[in-house]
Amino acid sequence: MLFFNYNYQLKAAFLFGDSSMQRMKSRMNGNRWAVAIVAVAALLMVKPIFAQDVSETRLADGIFMLEGQGGNMMLVATESHTVLVDAQFARMAEAIGAKVEALGSLPLSYLINTHFHGDHVGGNAYMSETLGATILAHANVLKRLADDTDFPREGLPTETLTDRHALDLGEYSLTLKHYPTAHTDGDIVIWVDGQNIVHVGDLYFVDRFPFVDLNSGGTVQGYIDAINSVLADADEHTQIIPGHGPLATATDYIRLRDMMIETREQLRAWHAAGADVDTMVATGLDEKWAEWTWNFINEERWIRTLFNDLQASH
Ligand SMILES: [Zn+2]
Fold first, then answer.
1. Distance 129 CA to ligand 1 centre (A)
2. Which of 68, 108, 179, 257 could form a cystine bridge with 133, CB 3.0-4.6 A?
3. What is the DSSP string of the chain?
């Protein structure tokens, strides 16, 4: 996912508490400074990032799912190594760094990028320059980021993999697997060996229509294949960190795969009956998928993704 809306009102309430917001407002009644102070406060509520803006969920000893703004992260900390998977946006980097230091140790041994999208690699330069991380990603991620002249050179991956890669961290080891035509052409999933924990990046949007980046080597079939491959290595106890959404299970992940297969079947049926894409959008999918729509990939965008994918695969 590339964009993420933030509810600043909720954030303000979170920072100050609803009742203290009320007290603040009533104390300021009639005060000529009130307007200015509220305006400054409103500005402060929009921009600042605090360490507590990154929350952690403990999955095992030294293994955490981290959430802030943008793609979910994983932190794996052992006696000898601290490894971060994904780095959200540049504006989150300091807060992420503070959380990494609190849960693991610095310097950061590795930052692993699941793929090249901005909400997963924005903190790359900070992690390498300030926290000392070696950045590891698929070769196609390096190629796409290097081609982007706006992307800071300090944030480019310096180690790449092409298919599979193993990382020995002492108490834990990681296995990285590449899926060549899924969400993009450079997606990797990261398993913590023997712990039944996997970070699947944007190969998973929980109970939402997924973003399949057809312009960057993604395909619907490749995405489904990747899900099936992860599921083949998973069981009912596997903890799955999705790119977007809450921590999930294999049963949850199956819902996404089945939605993709069923809605694609619908598209194929419409296509075989001679409908054009605008008619498909106007007709709409089955009511049962209504809740999968969200601000970035609504039903129309999902139908057009399926249609464009169908056209490209012919
Ligand atoms: Zn993405």
1. 24
2. 108
3. -------HHHHHHHHH-HHHHHHHHHHTTT-TTHHHHHHHHHHHHHS---GGGSEEEEEETTEEEEESSSS-EEEEE-SS-EEEE----GGGHHHHHHHHHHHS-SS-SEEE-SS--HHHHTTHHHHHHTT-PEEEEEHHHHHHHHH-TTS-GGGS-SEEESSEEEEE-SS-EEEEEEETTSSSSSEEEEEETTTTEEE-GGG-BTTSPPP--GGGT--HHHHHHHHHHHHHT--TT-EEE-SBSS-B-HHHHHHHHHHHHHHHHHHHHHHHTT--HHHHHHH---GGGGGG--SSS-HHHHHHHHHHHHHHT-
